[in-house]
Each structure stands twice: as structure tokens, then as C-alpha cells.
Model the fold of this input.
Amino acid sequence: MNSLVPAAAAFALFAAFVSVGFAIQFLRRFRVPASAPRAAVTVILPATGPLPGLDGLIADLKRQSLPPRRLIVAVEAKTDPAYERVRAVQATTVLPTIDLVVAGQTASSGQKCANIVAALNALGPEDEYVLLIDADIRPQPWYVASLIEGLAAGGPDLVNGYRWLTPTRPTLFAALVAALDRRIGVLPRPPATKLIWGGSIAVTARALAALDLPSTLAGQILDDLPIGSRASAVGLRVWARQAARAPTPLEPEPRRLVAFARRQLQYLKLYRPALWSAAVLIAIADLCARLLLIAAAAAQAPQAGAALATLIALAALDWLSAELRLYASRRLGVVDTRAFRFFTRLFALTLLPLPLLWTGLLCASFFASRIAWAHIRYTVDKTGRVLRVQRDAPTASAESEAAGNCLYPAESS
Done:
């Protein structure tokens, strides 16, 4: 064991330094738009279930510095609770104009993909900028402007954001999942990874035509990673905006939290297997390095002092990384509870909770042929194409199908 301690110390410290560096880079690139561009924005919202946060979401869209002129909500059927929910909101909302589209149930792709394609059919020539969002986000006033600003200036063709999980009740496990996802949320997305999160995708009309979403999403269980692949294939310029981290309420029920996180990594394994494999190897190596250092320090071996010093340095680096993410949260306009801040620091100082959860979720996502989403159970092949669909009726307790799609790895909706 003694011969492995120096290697374990070097690897763990390097990984911790990198984590701090990514958080610093995120903050350095964070910028809220000083003003909103002049642009006509159409928002597409694929949805299912009771949509308890719909009123809040529409209120947030109205408060935007760049308010969208039109909202297209696409549901699978008139029997979906989302249909009557949207109809009720339509009667009381003038701006944005709300259009309701019924996609019809599909047995050949993910229902969210079918909903998106149905919404696209409702677009017209006046829809110059299109923004795809999830139903569970609570965007800041600058959210739409931050995604559209670059497009309107003629820079990128597609701009993407990410979620910023905020537990509705700061239970220990909900705080752990949120802390892990925020750690992912500050990581960069090199173009080579082709990583896109489906909850915040802004595109120009020209880029939307190039993406050819009816063909790109045909047969796919997922929308965002196929969009990322298509964008790369046709040479679209893709930007990720740090300020477009949408606060997203996180319910504390452990079973749903685990299912949600595992599902995101199943998608990663299907669509980016090399990236998933790299994430598994790095996660296992980091966890094993930390465990080895703890064992060496506890064994009072000749290298116990060095191992203990390394553990103290690791705790300091993890704490610094956690503080930087808490500061990023404040920059994003999120008011974290005292309990959540306490848990975040506790996870850092105790060294193991986040690596254990991350490694466990990655291992749990190894089997990716069967995926449950909301009231639908899919069987897919190794490329993410849908082979079989089993569905129950949407119920008031169904999890929102518009929930985030990629939990980027060492990025993970």
C-alpha cells in the first residue's frame, strides 16, 4: 500500500485543483447582459403531467428583460393533465401569447421528441429566434436575454444553458444531489464533447432549419444529445452561457432523485459512451485514491503523516470549490438556505459523500436499455433508438417529462 500512497495523493490533489480551477473559470466568464437585444423570441415548452409550476414559469417569462412574444406548449394528448392546465392558463394570459399543440402519442420515439416536433410545425416566418425550455425551471430576469444576445449579434448559431438545482426542502440527500449537479454545472463543455442540455436551447431560424429536428429526433428517446451531434455534424457554432443557469426546484423524495440522476447518466452512456467510460474511470480512481489515503492515515504507517497532510489539503480544496459554487449561486440570484450551505460545506470537508454518490450513480447507469420517464417506460437499443414503449395514463403525481435531460459527467440533460 505504501507504494500507492504517493500516486493516490498526486491524483486526488490534481483532481481537486482542477475542480477549483473550473469553478474559477466559470465565475470569470459569468456575465449578465447589460441590456436586452431587440428580437422576437418564441419559446417551445414540451410538457406533461399537472405542471404545478406553470403559473410561476409564465410570471417569470413576463418579467424577462427580453420577454418572449409567444409560448408554444406541446402535450401528448387531450387526456394529459397538462392539456387542461394550459387551457386554464390560456384564458387568463395575454402576453406571451400561448398556443397549445397536441402531438399525439408516439410509439417510435421519446414523447418529448414528438412534442417538440409538433411544436415546430406551429412555427411561422415571424419566429426568428426559438428557445426550447423545460417546464420546471424558474428563470431569472436576464435568462432569455443571455441566451438570445449572442444569436442576435450574429455570433453563434445555438446557445445553451444548464439547470441550477435548488432543493425545495434541504434534506441531506436532496442537498447531496444538488451539490453534485452544481459541481457539474460549472464545468466547461468543449465542442468535441457535443454536450447540449435540453432545458435551455436557443437557436436562430436558420440554425433550426439546419438541425432538421424531425429527422434528427426520429426514433430517438432523447432530444438534446442528438441535437448536439447534429449541430456538430453540420458545423453550427455552439456557445454555452454561464449566466443561463436556470434555477430548478428539486423535490426531496429520494427514490425520484436517484431515478432522475440515473436516467441522465443512462442517456450519457447511450449517446456519449466514450465520455461515460472516461467519467467512470476518473470517478473510481478519485474515490479509490481518497479511500487509500484515509486508510494510510488511519494505519499509522510510515507514510501516515503525508497521507494525513494530503487529506487536509484535499478538504481545503474541496471546501474552496464548494464556496466558489455557493458564490456562483448568489451571482445567479439563488438564495440558498442556511441548511443547504451547511450541507454543502459538510460534504466538502468530509471528502467522501460526493465521490461516493457520483461513482454509485455512474455504476448504476451501466444498464441503459430500459429507461422510465414520467408515465412511460422505454426499451432502447445501444444507440438510444426506441424499440418498445409501454405507457400508463398521465396522472397528477407523474414526474414532469420536461425535466432536465443531461447530467454531464466530468461536464453530467
Remarks:
- The two ends are 40 Å apart (CA to CA).
- Confidence is low (pLDDT under 50) at residues 398-413.
- The first helix runs from residue 5 to 29.
